[in-house]
Design goal:
The protein is mostly helical. It has one domain. It has helices at 2-18, 25-40, 44-64, 74-114, 117-123, 128-166, 171-179, 185-210, 216-246.
């Protein structure tokens, strides 16, 4: 218990250093653009592929489990749309990014720590926490909502293609379900969750990498911990945000 409280305290201390005012905003801007590419654009491919198959699977499973003739067929499209918006395109994509982005951040900062590059920045008078971590947080918080929107769109397209190729329902019924009883607040809910998850992934992974002590073996351990702890906190805050925003 003491060890857990110690890590929580050190985590918030690191956050305090991270959000300190930057010394040279132009340098931070260049870092921010670089991290947009590393964290956001480089994750676009895997998000598109997974979202397409995810939408197709949701559609097929919903169709095969709602064979009651009294249920209208458009409910399959409705179920696909709401499942993607409410849960899959925010939470599932965040869990995937925790594995890809989180492990990358932890291993990058961990390697810099064990090779004493972070110590060199501190000697030069640079706030290493702010310089290395804050652009990653801002890039994830800014770009991840776009990934969620793209995931929703691609997931719906994947569901539509599954309908066309498998003929479980007519494409017209699927489109009616996509349009039926749409609640715009669900998009707000999904984007809020995405921003919180992006913050958790980057800060927890950065903490694990930044505080590494030892050598290459410890960097690997820190990378694994970053993925595990990020995933646990994503699931925890998913429950909390759902209760707060949808109850």
């Amino acid at each position: 218990m003491f060890r857990l409280l110690s890590h929580i305290g050190n985590y918030f201390i690191l956050l305090g250093r991270t959000f300190a005012p930057p010394e040279k905003r132009r340098i931070y801007y260049r870092q921010f653009i670089r991290e947009l590419n590393n964290i956001g654009i480089n994750s676009l491919g895997i998000v598109v592929i997974i979202s397409a198959f995810m939408g197709a699977v949701i559609t097929l499973q919903t169709a095969y489990n709602t064979e009651n003739p009294f249920l209208p067929k458009y409910l399959i499209g409705l179920g696909c749309r709401d499942s993607l918006i409410l849960e899959f395109s925010s939470t599932m994509v965040a869990l995937i990014l925790a594995g890809k982005v989180g492990s990358n951040i932890a291993s990058e900062l961990g390697t810099m720590r064990v090779t004493e590059q972070i110590d060199a920045l501190e000697i030069m008078g640079v706030n290493s926490a702010s310089y290395l971590i804050m652009p990653k947080i801002l890039a994830a918080v800014v770009f991840n909502p776009f990934l969620t929107i793209i995931s929703i769109i691609i997931g719906i397209i994947g569901g539509y293609l599954a309908v066309i190729f498998t003929h479980v329902i007519s494409p017209a019924d699927f489109i009616v379900g996509i349009q039926y009883a749409f609640i715009p607040y669900y998009i707000v809910y999904a984007l809020v969750k995405t921003i919180v998850f992006a913050f958790l992934i980057t800060t927890i992974s950065a903490y694990q990498g930044y505080t590494v002590k030892g050598g290459a073996l410890e960097v690997g351990v820190a990378s694994t911990r970053a993925v595990v702890f990020s995933s646990i906190n994503i699931l925890l805050f998913n429950v909390i945000l759902t209760q707060l925003m949808l109850s």
